[in-house]
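Backbone description:
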Amino acid sequence: MTDPTTVQKTTHDQASPYASPWSLRERIGIMLWSGAWAIFCVWTPKPLNPWRIFVLRCFGAKISGVPFVHSRARIQIPWKLRLAHRACLGDRANAYTLGEITIGEGATIAQEAYLCTGTHDPAPANNADYHRRECFRRRQSHRLARN
């Protein structure tokens, strides 16, 4: 297991704001995962936790020991999820795994909690054109506010 104090930053270069940062294979995997979780796991009662763990493992989740994942937990990308022994992902907890999420031994993510490893950087440091447009937009909105 990796050191929890080490943050691994991943950036995706996109041709445009509308382009997907994921490969076709990853997009297909996410679609298959969403369907599989909806069909095979959402309806299962708590005693079928081993079945849900099996499905997560089939989609690449790294699992050690016996964690608990509630049937209504939401996991965006299971192959970026690590669960240790007795970790718990509660009812309607959302693991938005754009980057890796590790839930350590004995840790509980409570119901309706939201874990997100994604962020947005609308202004890349080397994008001078963006900065010019943003300054112009701010000047225009300031002028409108004064009038």
User: Anything to note?
Assistant: The radius of gyration is 20 Å. The first helix runs from residue 24 to 40.
